[in-house]
Amino acid sequence: MKRTLSIGILLATFSLGAVASEQETRDLIGLGALTFADNCKKCHKIDGYGEEALYPSLRNPALLANKPLLIETVLHGRSAPRRNGGEEDLMPPLEFLTDREISAIIAFITNTWGDEVIVVSEEEVKAAR
Ligand code: HEC
C-alpha cells in the first residue's frame, strides 16, 4: 500500500514537471510573438513571407532548423560589402534584445513556420554575443 502511494507521488511529480515545461514553452512562444511584432515584422512581415527581393521569407523549414544561424542572424544581423567600399546594413543587429527575448523570437518563428519548435537556452544566446 505504502509502496503504491510513493510510486503514485513519483508519477505525479514527473507529469507535473512535464506540464510545467510545456507551459514554459508556450509562454516563451507568446513572448516571442510580441517581440517579433516589435522587431522583425516591419521587414519580414507578420505572415513571415517578407517582401520579394528585399526581405527574405522566414517560412523556410531548412532555415528554421539551423539553430546557430538563427542565433547569429538575430544577434548580429547581416551586412554586405558595398561596391565602393564600406559595409551595407542588410539586416540590423538586434543585440539590444535580452537573451530571453532572442530565445523567445526563435521559439516563436520555429514553432510557427518550422518543422518543430527550437528552444534555445539563455546561456546559448549569451555565449554567442
Ligand atoms: C530592417 C529590416 C529587417 C529587420 C527589422 C529584421 N530583418 Fe531579418 N533580414 C533582413 C534582410 C534584408 C535579410 C537578408 C540579408 C541577406 O541578404 O543576407 C534578413 C535575413 C534574415 C534571416 C536569414 C534568412 C536567410 O535566408 O538566411 C533570418 C533568420 C532573419 N532575417 C530573421 C529576423 C528576425 C527573427 C528579426 C527580428 C528579431 C529580423 N530578421 C529583423 C531584414 C530585416
Shape: elongated
Percentage of residues in DSSP E strands = 5-15%
In CATH, the architecture is: Orthogonal Bundle
What structural category do the secondary elements indicate? Answer: mainly alpha
Total DSSP helices: 5
Average residue pLDDT: 89
From the N-terminal CA to the C-terminal CA, the straight-line distance is 54 Å
Number of domains: 1
Radius of gyration: 19 Å
The CATH topology assignment is Cytochrome Bc1 Complex, Chain D, domain 2
CATH superfamily: Cytochrome c-like domain
Bound ions, cofactors and other small molecules, one mention each: heme C
Low-confidence stretches: none
Give the beta-strand count: 2
Helix content: 55-70%
- Strand arrangement in the largest pleated sheet: 1-2
Topology pattern, helix = H, strand = E: HHHEEHH
Let me know the largest β-sheet: 2 strands, antiparallel
CATH class: Mainly Alpha
SSE map:
Elements (H helix, E strand, L loop, with lengths): L1 H38 L1 H4 L22 H10 L1 E4 L5 E5 L7 H15 L8 H7 L1
Antiparallel strand pairs: 1-2
Bound molecules: heme C.
Heme C binds next to helix 2, helix 3, strand 2 and helix 4.
Would you mind describing this structure in some detail?
Keywords: Heme, Iron, Metal-binding, Signal. This is Cytochrome c domain-containing protein. Residues 27-113 form the Cytochrome c domain. InterPro entries: Cyt_c-like_dom (IPR009056), Cyt_c-like_dom_sf (IPR036909), Cytochrome_c-type_DH (IPR051459). Pfam families: Cytochrom_C. The protein has 129 residues and is mostly helical. The protein has one domain: Orthogonal Bundle (Cytochrome Bc1 Complex, Chain D, domain 2), CATH 1.10.760.10. The protein contains 5 helices and 2 strands, in the order αααββαα. It has helices spanning 2-39, 41-44, 67-76, 99-113, 122-128, and strands spanning 78-81, 87-91. Strands 1-2 form a two-stranded antiparallel sheet. A hairpin with a 5-residue loop joins β1 and β2 (87-91). The model has no long low-confidence stretch (mean pLDDT 89). The chain binds heme C (HEC). Heme C is lined by residues 39-40, 42-44, 55-56, 58, 63, 70, 73-74, 78, 90-92, 94, 105, 109. The site of heme C has 19 residues, from α2, α3, β2 and α4.
